[in-house]
TrEMBL record:
The keyword Ligase belongs to this UniProt entry's keyword annotation: yes
Binding site for ATP: S29, G30, G31, V32, D33, S34, S35
Enzyme Commission code(s) on record: 6.3.5.2
Functional description taken from the UniProt entry: Catalyzes the synthesis of GMP from XMP.
Name of the molecule in the record: GMP synthase [glutamine-hydrolyzing]
Membrane keyword on record: no
Any one GO MF annotation of this record: GMP synthase (glutamine-hydrolyzing) activity
Residue numbers of the full-length protein present here: 193 to 509 of 509
Recorded superkingdom: Bacteria
Oligomeric and partner information: Homodimer.
Annotated catalysed reactions: XMP + L-glutamine + ATP + H2O = GMP + L-glutamate + AMP + diphosphate + 2 H(+)
């Protein structure tokens, strides 16, 4: 029978055999897979693992700082790279979802490559690829899978002549979580909802600006922290907010307002392939809506997405 302890023991031993005294570079995303992969490799080779965590300016509110702190507490040799402006420049004026994804993928590789080149004599690229990623990348998939595979599976640019090491390649998600738990990784990292690589860029419909990111981060933060506070977070498979390219009329005091509309999305799912909208309690939705409209400048209307996948998708782009 498979146990996480035994998986860790044998994997760490194998990694030590394979990697010896070589240096390894790994891109952390804040998600479960890259974090668990990092901790496993860290157990095997310690400081020879060089982790890079890129702030693309499209993460949730305070996420970069919080997650970077957790990584440091975990003892990882991690470098946080502020590349916000590079991403914003590359995204300026882009409205097509696939164009945005491509720009983000391209800049990520540029930034990562630049950082990797600063690690003298690095030999390996480690990735948090898990078994479902391996399956997905060989089947015919839509554009989101294309960029996913770009990031996760064999997504090695030619100019980076590194060997690839993928210690989680045989595991399913729940097994990755068990391994993570045994490795004492923060529950906040292990239990977190999936979050797309392009981040908030595909939740801001239309072009991306730092100001729109700021609005959406505040909205998302209110939604997610209320889910956590009420214990609903773990009942939902994924949740987030979408900033719509729509303005609507509202009223505040005696004043007419004309401001942004945001949509809230929360779904139940097993693997993201199909999903149903979460039947969040009306009272909860009412509280979240009030808090958003009262606190977030520039938003005067909140709607809740009640579409299932298929035919809708989880993300709006
Ligand atoms: P959809 O919107 O296709 O999303 O129903 C299914 C799951 O995939 C995530 N997703 C992405 N993840 N890069 C990613 O890494 C992407 O471009 C991307 N697009 C969608 C989405 O958040 C959901 O978990």
């Amino acid at each position: 029978d498979w146990t996480s302890e035994q998986f860790i023991d044998s994997t760490v031993a194998e990694l030590q055999q394979t990697l010896g005294n070589d240096k390894v570079v790994l891109g952390l995303s804040g998600g479960v897979d890259s974090s668990v992969a990092a901790m496993l490799i860290h157990q095997a080779i310690g400081k020879n693992l060089y982790c890079i965590f890129v702030d693309n300016g499209l993460l949730r509110k305070d996420e970069f700082e919080n997650v970077l702190d957790s990584y440091k507490h975990m003892g990882l040799n991690v470098k946080g790279v502020d590349a916000k402006n590079k991403f914003y420049s590359a995204l300026a004026g882009l409205t097509d979802p696939e164009a945005k994804r491509k720009a983000i993928g391209r800049v990520f590789i540029e930034v990562f490559d630049e950082e990797a080149h600063q690690i003298e004599d690095v030999k390996w690229l480690a990735q948090g690829t898990i078994y479902p990623d391996v399956i997905e990348s060989v089947s015919v998939k839509g554009p989101s899978a294309t960029i996913k595979s770009h990031h996760n599976v064999g997504g090695l640019p030619d100019f980076m002549k590194l060997k690839v090491v993928e210690p989680l390649k045989t595991l399913f998600k729940d097994e990755v979580r068990l391994v993570g738990r045994t490795l004492k990784i923060d529950e906040a990292i292990l239990g977190r909802h999936p979050f797309p690589g392009p981040g908030l860029a595909i939740r801001i419909l239309g072009d991306i600006t730092a100001e729109k990111v700021h609005i959406l981060q505040q909205v998302d933060h209110i939604f997610i922290s209320n889910l956590k506070k009420t214990g609903l977070y773990d009942e939902v498979w994924q949740a987030g907010a979408i900033l719509l390219p729509v303005q609507s009329v509202g009223v505040m005091g005696d004043e007419r307002t004309y401001e942004n509309v945001v949509a809230l999305r929360a779904v139940t799912s097993v693997d993201g392939m199909t999903a149903d909208w979460s039947r969040l309690p009306y009272e909860f939705l009412a509280d979240v809506s009030n808090e958003i409209i009262n606190k977030v400048k520039g938003v005067n209307r909140v709607v809740y997405d009640i579409s299932s996948k298929p035919p809708a998708t989880i993300e709006w782009e």
